[in-house]
Amino acid sequence: MRPILMKGHERPLTFLKYNREGDLLFSCAKDHTPTVWFADDGERLGTYRGHNGAVWCCDVSRDSTRLVTGSADQSVKLWDVQTGTQLYTFNFNSPARSVDFSVGDKLVVITTDPFMGNPSTIQVKRIARDPADQTSDSVLTIKGPQGRINRAVWGPLNKTIISAGEDSIIRIWDAETGNLLKETDKESGHQKTISSLCMSADKSHFLTGSADKSAKLWDSRSLTLLKTYQMDRPVNAVAISPLLDHVVIGGGQEAVNVTMTDRRAGKFEAKFYHKILQDEIGGVKGHFGPINALAFNPDGRSFSSGGEDGYVRLHHFDPEYFSIRM
Amino acid sequence: MAAAAVLSMSEIENKAMNIGIDLSTIVFDNIVLPPGDDFGITSDDEDILHEEVAPEFETGYGNVIVVDNLPVVSPEKFAKLEGVIRKIYSQTGVIKERGLWMPVNPGTNMTLGYCFIEFNTAQEAKEAKEKTDGYKLDKSHIFIVDMFDDIERYMNVPEEWTPAEIKPYEAGDHLQHWLTDEKARDQFVIRAGTVTEIFWNDARQLRPDPVYHYQYWIDSFVQWSPLGTYLATVHQQGAIVWGGKSTFNLIHRFPHNQVKHIDFSPGERFLVTYSSQEPSNPRDTHRVVLNIFDLRTGKLMRDFKGSVDDFTTGGSGGLSGISWPIFKWGGGKEDKYFARIGKNAIYVYETETFILVDKKSYKVDNVVDFSWSPTDSILALFVPELGGGNQPARVSLVQMPGKVELRQKNLFSVSDCKMYWQSNGEYLAVKVDWYTKTKKSTYSGFELFRIKEHDIPIEVLELDNKNDKIIAFAWEPKGHRFAVIHGDGPRPDVSFYSMKTGGITARVSKLTTLKAKQANALYWSPAGRFIVLAGLKGFNGQLEFYNVDDLETMATGEHFMCTDIEWDPTGRYVATAVTLVHVMENGFHIWSFNGKLLYRIPKDNFFQFQWRPRPQSLLSPEKEEEISRNLRKYSKKYEAEDQDVSLALSEQDRKKRRVLQEEWETWTARWKQYHEEERELRLQLRDGEPSDDEGSQEQYEAKEVEAEEVLDVHEEIVD
């Protein structure tokens, strides 16, 4: 499996997202420019210029016409995917950490960081069909969790919002009222900051990765802990294979320790685990910094990883991968 | 409220409400209970209170001694006697004014033959008692000196002797029960974070099997006794020794405040504890206290106190402090002797009496290092070169007791020597660093002593390349071979030698040299034959499992950043560990003797791994040989067992997988059902967009679409 190395960012990668068809790959990094690539051969298609800070997260609409990006410049921008023009800018008074389109792409859930005395928030904005009608009003604002909320996504049928972050608790909120419905307890939940959260394709379950060196699989309706994948390093990024019963988990030692040991000690591998048996299947090496972002192509035949080293590595699986027996 | 069981706060609040008391107005601290009444609520720190020893009260006579057996004198000689006594006792301390009182028989006016002396301090009084008890004034007057406080105690001794009550014999715990494990497994102790755990090494199941687990057990470290009978834990207040059949029970406490090091005698008869105290005056040296306890009774056999300098003289310790253990045990498993090095002398003590052998130290001018034979009462000493080469350096072997010099070897232009005993005490290898002619550098070689042969022949061994540095040396346990890592470059060589080659007179010969290895440490299997060549530190944990009988590498492996390696006492398994020396990768791996990685356990904040040692086998060497000859017969049984276990394991594994799979299927069935039910709703959310595939099955078609876009129109007139 020879990866395609995509060098388009000057700073560490933060997020990767495929469109529904799996032909486009969107990447966000701490440089200010989200980039779109051909998911097949890694050719760079274009960039989205306009942010003035690290871009933490993005999402693309089902019809691949709209891109939404959240940035440390305290704004969330809506882009035209094809032309790269800015359609709208939502301004906040603190950095935007995560963005996620609802089913139907009429709503977007945004989280903002605690900043200058403002607490962290989860906000829902309505996306107008015609950008000219777009307003910046929030449909819903949720406050409460302590510290940064690293990720908030829509639950099944847009009825719930699932959030996770620095306080290591996963919460399910009512998307209508903003009431807290469920939260994880100390025993089954993570012990440290939750860095990442990835929904399954049918939104029935999701995977979370945490600095406590584990990734956990949850039922998205009942918030039941289904599986735990034990790692030997802090987890920064997770992804669920849409094709096989595999999950891929990436991370590495904390960035502050990276310079102290060599590459092998850093454990900058993307590790594959069997989703059901929780056994390790294998690893994909290559990055020379912690892995910050992982994404599966919706066809499950390739995946990409983004590292602190500024590279996106695009891997098309060899035929042997599909015949792995556990 | 009488004798109520412990009430919960809510019950109390209810009660208060009922009787109309506002609890918030009550200050609980102001409530005074009738004395002696606890209302049936026992305080949870009561036990601790009772355990405390009642403080000793000063009687005020601690500085008074009684001197008995003085001459009985008449009043004329009174002043003379008093003068003599004053003269004796003013040497040891300051006698208080009017502090000497000699009572007189009022009938005869003669003295009664004793006197009281009051010193300024109790310390002085004690010293006076120690120094003058038994002092011979003349033939018939030998002083009997006692502390005044003791007199009362002696007065209370009952006149009639009553036989001591003999407690019925209580069978002790079976301390070696772990050896009777049916699966013949070995134990090990690990310490990680605040937890100390003891496990069986269940290599068949490829996992550790927990035996004992304790949180916050110890303050500093744990240590097995040399035969594995006990586990010692080290605390602020001293060491505790544990052992027992099924669990670890407290066997003895060995109080020693601020204990830093402990050491067992090889035969498990004694325990040495060591502490060194920061001086209150920074110019003073550290105060060192060493206690030697009898391990079985817990009795303190002897203590040594002094400044740290008293224990660091000799050797190359110097400023770096003491080199532990201070006392080295000799005389084999009987723990007959222990010895320490001092200035120009070796202090050898007998455990029979706990005093110096022949009541004096063994004078050896300028001795810097010594070691005992592991099996015999033989000391090996090293004295360095003196007087600029006029007096050669010397290695000598001395038999104890008697201090008979068995063999001596003079060495010229030597910079340093290191002594290595073979575990059976058959051979002694002395690594010698010689100066080159220019004295600018050194080169190394070995002097090999054959202890058990007549006259102790000595052989000199030089490496093929004399300039190679010797990085490591190790004898094969109980064997006749040794391994040396030598070389100058980044990849040194490893050579193996045998002491048993040639005809009638055995001589040393090289077996083989392995070139350019990433190794800097040697770990022989305790059973011999196999060795792990390890590359620690700079080599990042390279491991090579080598068979010295067949001179072949069995396997190579790597435990990245490995810091510690230890064979289990039977030589079947090897543990490699990364301890807290490194921040990352903490934990341990267990390997088979032939280098197969069996299992790995990651543990954060990993401090210590230690196999539980085993006592020596009770089988005679002949019997052992017989077993190894008929190994096939025995191994059949174990192979069958192994197979059973592996079958059971795979069966277990299959079952577990099936359960997991079934469990998962119930989940996915439920999800599918939801997904179907919600299809309509989803369609609505998507404004009726029909395709409700999961995005993965639908194939998209790649189409080349040529789009032309006019970016800029620019007209230029060309000349």
TrEMBL record, chain A:
GO biological process: formation of cytoplasmic translation initiation complex
Superkingdom of the organism of origin: Eukaryota
Localization annotation: Cytoplasm
GO cellular component, one term: eukaryotic 43S preinitiation complex
Keyword entries, A-Z: Cytoplasm, Initiation factor, Protein biosynthesis, Repeat, WD repeat
Alphabetical list of InterPro entries matching this protein: eIF3i, WD40/YVTN_repeat-like_dom_sf, WD40_PAC1, WD40_repeat_CS, WD40_repeat_dom_sf, WD40_rpt
WD repeats: 6-47, 48-89, 142-183, 187-228, 284-314
SUPFAM superfamilies (UniProt xref): WD40 repeat-like
Keyword Lyase found: no
Any one GO molecular function term: translation initiation factor activity
Assembly: Component of the eukaryotic translation initiation factor 3 (eIF-3) complex.
UniProt family annotation: Belongs to the eIF-3 subunit I family.
Job description of the protein: Component of the eukaryotic translation initiation factor 3 (eIF-3) complex, which is involved in protein synthesis of a specialized repertoire of mRNAs and, together with other initiation factors, stimulates binding of mRNA and methionyl-tRNAi to the 40S ribosome. The eIF-3 complex specifically targets and initiates translation of a subset of mRNAs involved in cell proliferation.
Protein name per UniProt: Eukaryotic translation initiation factor 3 subunit I
Organism: Rhynchospora pubera
UniProtKB/TrEMBL annotation, chain B:
Organism phylogeny: Eukaryota, Viridiplantae, Streptophyta, Embryophyta, Tracheophyta
Record-annotated RRM domain positions: 63-150
InterPro entries with a match to the protein in the record: EIF3B, eIF3B_RRM, Nucleotide-bd_a/b_plait_sf, RBD_domain_sf, RRM_dom, TIF_beta_prop-like, WD40/YVTN_repeat-like_dom_sf
Chief localization: cytoplasm
Pfam families for the chain: eIF2A (PF08662), RRM_1 (PF00076)
Example GO molecular function: translation initiation factor activity
Protein name as it appears in the record: Eukaryotic translation initiation factor 3 subunit B
Subunit record text: Component of the eukaryotic translation initiation factor 3 (eIF-3) complex.
Family assignment from sequence similarity: Belongs to the eIF-3 subunit B family.
Keywords, comma-separated and alphabetical: Cytoplasm, Initiation factor, Protein biosynthesis, RNA-binding
Leader sequence segment: none
Species per Swiss-Prot/TrEMBL record: Rhynchospora pubera
Protein biosynthesis is among the record's keywords: yes
Subcellular compartments: Cytoplasm
Residue ranges, annotated region (Disordered): 682-706
GO cellular component term of the entry, any: eukaryotic 48S preinitiation complex
Biological processes annotated in GO: formation of cytoplasmic translation initiation complex
Function (record text): RNA-binding component of the eukaryotic translation initiation factor 3 (eIF-3) complex, which is involved in protein synthesis of a specialized repertoire of mRNAs and, together with other initiation factors, stimulates binding of mRNA and methionyl-tRNAi to the 40S ribosome. The eIF-3 complex specifically targets and initiates translation of a subset of mRNAs involved in cell proliferation.
DNA damage found in the keyword field: no
